[in-house]
Amino acid sequence: YQYGKEGENDHEAMDTDLLRDYISYARNFVSPNLTEASGKLLISSYVEMRKVGSGKGQISAYPRQLESLIRLAEAHAKVRLSEIVDELDVEEAKRLYREALKQAAVDPKTGRVDVAILTTGISAGERRLRADLAQTLKRHLKERKSAQSAGAIKKDMLFNEMRERNDERITRDMFDDAIRALEEENFLVATAHTIRIVTLGESNFD
Length: 206
Fold this sequence. Notes:
Blueprint: H1 2-29, E1 33-34, H2 36-55, H3 63-79, E2 84-85, H4 87-104, H5 116-120, H6 124-147, E3 153-154, H7 155-165, H8 172-184, E4 188-190, E5 194-197
Parallel strand pairs: 1-2
Antiparallel strand pairs: 3-5, 4-5
């Protein structure tokens, strides 16, 4: 029995060595090239991905994703020790890419793929929501300034006011993002606990 276990271990070690040598050989000596047919299929696949996203108001592909498809197709051809990337490699690259997107780039609110999540960490819909919140906050502060004398405003008080007047559920992170966005516009200055509207010019209040 013990001898049998040793034999199994030797067999597993040999398989691992063989796999390592196989990968090393493919990496160093196989450089597959795209054919005209596989190149056209890659481009048409990328265009199709773009159309699907634009039709639903979502971002589903950037030029970087086309590069990823090409690399995946080339890698699949290397595994086959092939000198060319054929349509089979492209189809497998598309399948792998779709599976990766399902796991990493699905907007939980819509259930749709949005590759912006991969590049920015938030979906296009979330970015629009945050931009809208910044403008809503800006309007609210203008109204406050018109009704009251200018001065420091407590962030906690402002946060509660924004939650009361908006339908969307506003989180503290979203509120803080809106504050930062208005700071970048030089509309306000924020400290840890307060904000103050900039009053050096009227251009920010158009």
